[in-house]
Design brief:
Oligomer: single chain
Radius of gyration: 26 Å
Distance between the termini: 71 Å
Shape: flat
Strand order of the largest sheet: 1-2-5-6
Largest sheet: 4 strands, antiparallel
Strand content: 25-35%
Helix content: 40-55%
Structural class: alpha+beta
């Protein structure tokens, strides 16, 4: 038997160490530079990328049950990094410039408006048929 099987605390410590290692690796890969690259300066204008970065983890541990049976679980994680805009610095003035997405900035609100107008009318028509 290994230490992990004899002592659940050792298994828990091993799982904690694994999660810390995963967090360090994922946190380093989910960054602004992974989305855009480094800030750029040209003709007196500096452009600094801005991104939304998130990551999540889950994990588990193993142990030996009272009847000698082995039990345990696993884990995993993921990261997401998306560009949202950039900061432009020119003549000592910093300006945030968002990246516009036509689909999410125009089409989705327009669809929500159409549904908001049409849905009450559809509900009234269905109630009249009863």
């Amino acid at each position: 038997m290994t230490d992990h099987e004899e002592n659940p605390a050792v298994a828990t410590q091993a799982a904690d160490a694994l999660l810390e290692h995963l967090a360090d690796r994922l946190g380093g890969s989910a960054s602004v530079t992974a989305v855009y690259g480094e800030p750029v300066t040209a003709d007196g204008v500096t452009v600094i990328p801005v991104a939304r970065v998130a990551f999540g983890l889950g994990g588990g541990a193993g142990w030996v049950g009272e009847a000698g049976g082995r039990e345990g679980g696993g884990g995993g994680g993921g990261a997401d990094a998306r560009p949202v805009g950039y900061i432009e610095i020119s003549n000592g003035v910093a300006t945030y410039r968002p990246i516009r997405r036509t689909w999410t900035d125009v089409a989705v609100p327009l669809a929500a408006l159409v549904v908001g107008v049409a849905l009450p009318k559809a509900v009234r028509m269905l109630r009249r048929r009863r």
